[in-house]
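Marked as duplicate of an earlier ticket. Keeping the data here for the record.
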Amino acid sequence: MVTRLNSARYQFIAGGLAILVLSGCRSEPPETSTTVPEQQAPALAPTPAFNADSAYTFVERQVAFGPRVPGSKAHAACGDWMVARLTAAGATVVEQTGTVISYNKERLPLRNIIGQFHPDRKERVLLLAHWDTRPFADKDDERTNEPIDGANDGGSGVGILLEIARHLAAKEHGPGVDVLFTDVEDHGQPSGAMGLDESSIDTWCLGSQYWVKNPHVPGYTARFGILLDMVGAKDARYYQEALSMQFAPAVVRKVWKTGEALGYGDRFVQETKYFVGIDDHVPVNKVLRIPTIDIIEYDPSTQAFGPYWHTHDDSMEVIDRASLDAVGRTVLEVVWKER
């Protein structure tokens, strides 16, 4: 009796286990799922080719007007030509006029010129250079009271930006770009005023000082700014300027890394030099808080600017296409890659 009962119980348990095992092994229909492909940013159009010959011609054209001293006929004619160039490139041009007071209490007419590309875009990038020239050659041994050509000091930055401007209307992605040509930058007190121990430092960069207090767009701001000053001399080297490293180190690294990637690592030197007392980027950083850097030549032989600086040697003989190309290609690449 006990034997039969145990046998029946065993068979019941064994049968139940078999059912459970078979139930666990039963294949379930596969779950259906929809894979959503990752959205990738659309590919950018290739960066346009920077034309160093064109930039050189733009420098040459400025010099042909004569020294661009504020209030002179050459200054007025060159300004009209720059406005025409920006307009032809598709910019909305704003001219900012006013009066500033020089170190010797002279009232000087001011004409800042701004070319806006895609002004409807809230996000902006700022490119700038001064377009006036020194009214005297205070670093020369001869003709010290005569104005200089300013081929490099003024002309080179403008020439590069006018060439870059030819391409900006076609930039259909990312932030809009403002090209600012500041006036009355180079009218400071004639005593080596860009040195670090000068009390006359505020007599420089009057155009940018005026603009930051009266921007062409109320509440103007930008992601970053790049200033070009004295960038076209033969064999020019661009060290990381100390004030730029103080105000905008990330922008310096971005630009110098781009220059190196393009093959200009020998030009964009990864070393900081403290040799600029003030330039147009300083008011932009201090007042508008736009992280703005200065691409400017450092000459180890003078431990400052090139020997042509504020002399009559600052002529077209100083300008070299290879230097214009290195800076122009680098800046255009940086701007074009901004989404």
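See parent ticket for discussion. The longest strand covers residues 107-117.
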